[in-house]
Design goal:
It comes from Falsigemmobacter faecalis. InterPro entries: CD-NTase, NT_2-5OAS_ClassI-CCAase, NT_sf. It holds the Pfam family SMODS. This is Nucleotidyltransferase. The chain is an alpha+beta fold. It has two domains: 144 residues, Poly(a)-polymerase, middle domain (Orthogonal Bundle), CATH 1.10.1410; 137 residues, Beta Polymerase, domain 2 (2-Layer Sandwich), CATH 3.30.460.90. The chain has ten helices and seven strands. Strands 1, 2, 3, 4, 5, 6 and 7 form a seven-stranded mixed beta sheet that branches. Bound molecules: adenosine-5'-triphosphate and magnesium ion. Adenosine-5'-triphosphate binds next to helix 3, strand 7, helix 5 and helix 7. The site of magnesium ion has 5 residues, from helix 3.
Length: 298
């Protein structure tokens, strides 16, 4: 029978990007870029966010693409952020119809790919988030229609901090972040407990601190428990540029997240107890119940 260690390793690798997926993501980026080039003066585009940091979970959706505008589009910066979002949305609707949806900081383009019961998509990206961006020194400005202003961000700083955390944790950090984001995405919760899920990654920079203790189950139990304890803390943008990441959750949402994180920590404790008492099959089933179909039973 699969050991708990083997099960977690398999789970981890199932949440990793593979070559077919990265090829599909690049092709989608190119497709959207080719189209938007006919509408806007775009300097360059790149895949970013959790996708580029290797902290994206499965199924693969909402892959962020920054479209860095040329200086000749600078007029947008003196307007409300809704102006560029509306223009991008209108343009994308021409090509993608109602599959293009306006969000607070981006336009989501859905490619109509559906995940199956095991969360597989035949290695295809479900959707991308098109983010218009302007360069500002070594940082970027992106529209935030929720706040009604342009906000600063820096994907390079976020990526560097994730690498630091990963290395300080024997290179297991990104794997655990993907796992908790997978738990967070589980439809059993209805709405995601932690929203935005970037908050899980930001909290992990402190809550999943090295050294790695050597056992996935124990580390995961401690991680859920610390996330529950600290969900009410203020979590600033790790780059110190944008609004606090925790600002997107109101009190009721944080309360709900805490309850669900505590329940997950408790389920993890019970799973560990099964292992201790030699009930490996029960332990595997408990972890599967906690995470969802990508956690293997065999
Ligand atoms: N409040 C913020 N201030 C500055 N930058 C932010 C802020 N929120 C998000 N970002 C940046 O924008 C990126 C995309 O945001 P998003 O909410 O899609 O998070 P994500 O890390 O990509 O997570 P997910 O896996 O849910 O897509 C983040 O990875 C981060 O680099
Ligand atoms: Mg994202």
């Amino acid at each position: 029978m699969l050991s708990i260690e083997e099960a977690f390793r398999k789970f981890k690798s199932r949440l990793e990007l593979n070559e077919k997926e990265t090829t599909n993501a690049s092709n989608r980026q190119q497709e959207v870029r080719n189209y938007l080039d006919t509408k806007f003066k775009i300097d360059r585009s790149f895949l970013t966010g959790s996708y580029a940091r290797w902290t994206k979970t499965k199924p693969l959706k909402d892959v962020d693409i920054f479209f860095v505008m040329k200086a000749s589009e600078d007029d947008y910066l003196s307007k409300a952020p809704s102006a560029i979002l509306t223009d991008f949305h209108d343009a994308l609707v021409e090509k993608y119809g109602d599959k293009a949806r306006k969000q607070n900081r981006s336009i989501n383009v859905d490619f109509g790919v559906k995940a199956d019961a095991d969360d597989n998509t035949d290695y295809r990206v479900i959707s991308v988030d098109v983010v218009p961006a302007f360069e500002k020194g070594s940082d970027f400005q992106i529209p935030d229609n929720g706040l009604g202003k342009w906000i600063g961000t820096n994907p390079k700083i976020h990526a560097d901090k994730a690498v630091q955390a990963h290395q300080a944790y024997s290179n297991e950090w990104k794997g655990l972040v993907r796992m908790v984001k997978y738990w967070n995405n589980n439809p059993k919760h209805g709405e995601k407990p932690v929203k935005p899920s970037f908050l899980i990654e930001v909290m992990a920079m402190e809550c999943l601190h090295g050294p790695w203790g050597g056992q996935f189950d124990r580390e995961m139990q401690g991680f859920f428990s610390t996330l529950a304890d600290r969900i009410f803390d203020k979590w600033p943008d790790p780059a110190g540029l944008g609004p606090a990441i925790s600002d997107s959750m109101d009190l009721a949402r944080k309360q709900r997240a805490q309850t669900l994180l505590r329940a997950a920590a408790r389920e993890a404790t019970l799973a560990i107890n099964h292992s201790r008492q030699g009930r490996n099959g029960e332990a595997l089933r408990a972890w599967r119940e906690l995470f969802g179909p990508k956690f293997p039973l065999s």
